[in-house]
Amino acid sequence: MQFRELGRTGLKVSAVCLGTMTFGDQTPEADAFAQMDLALERGVNFFDTAEMYASPPKAETQGETERIIGRWLKRSGKRARIVLASKVAGRSRDMKWIRPESLLDDGQVRLSRRQIDYAVEQSLRRLETDYLDLYQVHWPDRLYRGFGFQTYKDYPQDFIAFETVLESLARHVEKGTVRAIGISNESPWGLMRYLAASETSGLPRIASIQNAHNLVNRRFETSGAAEIALREQVGLLAYSPLAQGQLTGKYLDGALPPGARKTLYNRMQRYEGPGASDAIAAYVALARELGVTPVQLALKFVDTRPWTTATIIGASTVRQLEEDLAAFDVAWTEEMEKRVNAIHAAHPDPCP
After folding, report:
1. β-strands 46-48, 16-19: how paired?
2. By the 8 A CB rule, do 52 and 22 touch?
């Protein structure tokens, strides 16, 4: 297992991060425990969760993922070996159940100081720990088309200032309940605004950005965010490297495997837009031609990008996790690079 520095924090994280959003819904607790045991055994020291999880988000399972991780940490006694990351929900009118009504701002979940304070405290309680190694803003406070759209739309800019969000997070860094901070589902402009705010105000610096990155969504590099990640040492924590399972090929030709996320939840519209099926089929066919599995091609592509600090893999079963972990042992070749770039040129970013 490779280890890479998280931003400029000095924290060393495994190049593979265990994503946990299925824990507590699609993945029952016993299987989640087995996944965490296996991941740690294979050298994965980086676990990612969020106050919103399990996913898909709903009031009945909100916080259950963190509770499961907390029970595993207590049982295993291995908290000191884990770099533990969680996230605070951004602006939302639809998930009011994530906060007490008395804390809502204008009837919404927002990134206000009191809501961030509450979110940190609740995550620590559920995770049964007294600190988080990385705490991330899950999505912005401003209205923003962060994913799933091919066109830009400008919204009224009545968001909580970047400096104010950083000040709220800084209080927890100063207390020692948070070691480092990051952002997620953010634009290059938003990332630079956070960096500028930290430099001019002496506030904690963003260590990472967690955005989608995969063969059918290379927007992180084509938008210029990759250059910022490299120049400013704000590494990418790449989520959805398999495009929610689409890049495995299991959904080709309309297939709906029993127990798969699309079959259960029908929440895969991001990867079903115009041109998506042609691009996915091309990558699956390429993998087979090159003598690797589609999973190996997709995961190793993300792992070998110079701006990637960690690739977040999420599995609903231990068997899937075994396959995902093995993919990182594959050697990435010049031929692979040339061929995936050729497909990308023919089918650029169909699933942003």
Report:
1. parallel
2. no
Q: Which residues pair with 85 in a beta bridge?
A: 48, 134
Closest CA relative to residue 340, chosen from 310, 301, 305: 301
Active site residue 53: yes
- Which whole number is the average pLDDT over 16-28? 97
- Choosing from 53, 135, 251, 283, which is the catalytic residue? 53
Q: State the burial class of residue 154 (Cβ atoms within 10 Å of its Cβ: 0-12, 13-18, 19+).
A: exposed
Write the secondary structure of 20-51 as one string of H (helix), E (strand) and C (coil): CCCECCCECHHHHHHHHHHHHHCCCCEEECCC
User: Is 14 strand, coil or helix?
Assistant: strand
CB hemisphere CA count around 295 (13 angstroms): 17
Name the token pair of 132.
């988080």
The Cα 91–Cα 352 span in angstroms is 20
- Asked if the model's pLDDT at residue 330 lies above 90, the reply is yes
Answer yes or no: are the C-beta atoms of 205 and 8 closer than 8 Å: yes
- Backbone dihedral region of 46: left (phi > 0), alpha (psi from -120 to 50 degrees) or beta? beta
Alpha carbon distance 267, 5 (integer Å): 34
Q: What is the mean pLDDT of residues 110-139?
A: 98
174 and 117 in contact (C-beta within 8 Å)?
no
Residue 105, both tokens: 């701002």
Q: Give the C-alpha separation, 314 to 329, whole Å.
A: 17
Contact 188, 225 (CB under 8 A): yes
What is the C-alpha to C-alpha distance for residues 272 and 274, in angstroms, rounded to an integer?
A: 7
Look at the chain and count its residues. Answer: 352
On whether the CB atoms of residues 87 and 96 are closer than 8 A, the answer is no
Q: Check: CB of residue 128 under 8 Å from CB of residue 179.
A: no
Contact between 216 and 349 under an 8 Å Cβ cutoff? The reply is yes
Q: Which residue has the higher pLDDT, 316 or 88?
A: 88
CA-CA distance, 136 to 182, in Å (whole number)?
Answer: 4
HSE-up of residue 188 (Cα within 13 Å, Cβ side): 14
Q: What is the pLDDT of residue 235?
A: 94
Distance CA 107, CA 29 (A): 33
Pairing of strands 3-5, 12-14: antiparallel
